[in-house]
Each structure stands twice: as C-alpha cells, then as structure tokens.
Amino acid sequence: MLLFVIPLKSQQTSKSWETVSRLFERTIKSVCNQSSNSFRVVVVCHELPNNQYIHPYVDYVRVEFPQVSSQDQVNLLIRKRTDKVRKVLTGIKYAQENYSFTHIMVVDADDCVSKHLAQLVEQSPQNNGWFVNKGYLYKEGSKYLYIKRQNFDRWCGTSIILRRDLYPLPETLESNNLDYYNRYYIPHSKAVELLANRETPISPLPFPGSVYIVCHNENVLRKENLINPKGLLPKIKKVLFNYRPITLSIRKDFGLY
Asked: Which of 20, 36, 107, 162 could form a disulfide with 118 if both were Cys (CB 3.0 to 4.6 A apart)?
C-alpha cells in the first residue's frame, strides 16, 4: 500500500490562506483519484485548511511545534524546509502506528499526481521505489502544460516513491536543531544518486507521474525561469516541442482543473 504524506504550510507563513487552501483542495482530490484503493493519505498541518476535504482514506494530523514566521528573514528558507521535514516525519510516524503500508510518497500541497501510482506500488510491493523522470510543469491559470521529458525529479519535490524501510527516520522529533531534521531528509534532487550509492537504487516511473504547479504566489521558490527562457529562439523551441494543451485525458489522469 502507498502512503501519501502531504505537509501543509501554516497560515502564518502563507501570503493568502485562501489560495493555500484552494491549491490544497485540488491536490488532495488528485491524490485520492487513484485507480486502486491501496493507498492512505496523511495531511500534517498547524491549521485545518478551509473547505476541509473529507475522504475515508485521509487523516489530518495537527501539530503544535513553533511555526515559521515570514517576518523572520534570517534563514527563512531553511526554516521553511525544516518545518516541512518535521511535518513529513510526523506524518510517517502517525502512519506507522495506524496503517500497514509498503511505500511512502511526499506530495507538495500544490501539486497533482497520476492516478496510477497506488496501483503500481500494489503490483510491485518489494520494489525499492521509483522516481518521476518524466512529468509536467503547469503555470497556474495557463491552458498549456510544459512536458519535462527527463530529470523531472530534479525540479519537483513530488517525485519520489520510496519503500518504507529505506526512508530514514530519527528516534525522536523533540529536537529543535535545524540540522538535526535536515539530516533525515532525502533531497529530491539528489535522491536517485544517494540511493544508488547506498546500493538501494530506485527505478524511473514508467509513465508521467506528477504535475509541478508554479507561479501562484505561494511557491517557496520562484520558478518562472523554468517556463520563460530568455531569447526568442529558446522560447520558440520550447513552444514547438515541449508545450501541450491540457486535454481531457490529462485532466482525468492528474485531477488537474
């Protein structure tokens, strides 16, 4: 069974809680649109989102550890990432106490995923895991998708499925040391290399696995440069070879609306 863990940023960190809640609603609907029932979802948050989505396979776990303040600019990015890691680890530990699952996928609360992920895990429960080599990038509000044909996992955090025994977990979540938590986090951009070096390689997903959604003002990092290259010729090449209209099939596969 596949466990999806969705760490949700706090209202205090958000520019617009309404936007964060709206993006999350699309994400959770996408995750729950699996073609197999062999999955569970744990959402870890400080505050419950607006229009809380209810599903029998979804649990919301609220945390009380100190929130990241956007007013504190010192190491803000590191603190945001640490907040995410703490929520991910909290979600996994909760799931360990409540479910029987074989694999873990961390999903950013603004992305969409393929409906075929849980079925793939169900069919190959002993596999070390997979990475999304091919996926889509979507600029919020656009009518088109940009297809990333390889190395999608280096762009997007919603890209790694890992067997649960390979996911590193600390013994406790009580430490407030930022480095402590980051030591237990596998960066998505380096996961393939790190796991190969540990002799537990993961496989490329055999189909496009995720939609990386950007330019909605709540991204941790600005990503406009990924879809707006400089120069006329690069722009023409990207339009001709890499952009695709959002078809009904893609909407159904990823729950993208």
From this structure: 36
In this structure, the number of other CB atoms found within 10 A of the CB of residue 249 comes to: 8
Closest CA to 22 of 157, 147, 141, 118: 141
Cα–Cα distance, 156 to 133 (Å, whole number): 10
**Residues 176, 82 contacting (CB under 8 angstroms):** no
- The span from the CA of 168 to the CA of 95, in Å, is 15
Q: Please tell me the distance from the alpha carbon of residue 70 to that of residue 14, in angstroms, as a whole number.
A: 8
Torsions phi, psi of 193, nearest 5? -65, -45
Q: Identity (one letter) of the amino acid at 224?
A: E
Per-residue pLDDT tens for 90-147?
A: 999 999 999 999 999 999 999 999 999 999 999 999 999 999 999 999 999 999 999 9
Hey, what are 55's tokens? 């599903």
Sign of the C-alpha dihedral, residues 221, 51, 66, 186?
negative
Contact between 144 and 246 under an 8 Å Cβ cutoff? The reply is yes
Give the total residue count for the chain: 257
pTM exceeds cut of 0.85: yes
C-alpha 184/C-alpha 84 separation (Å) is: 12
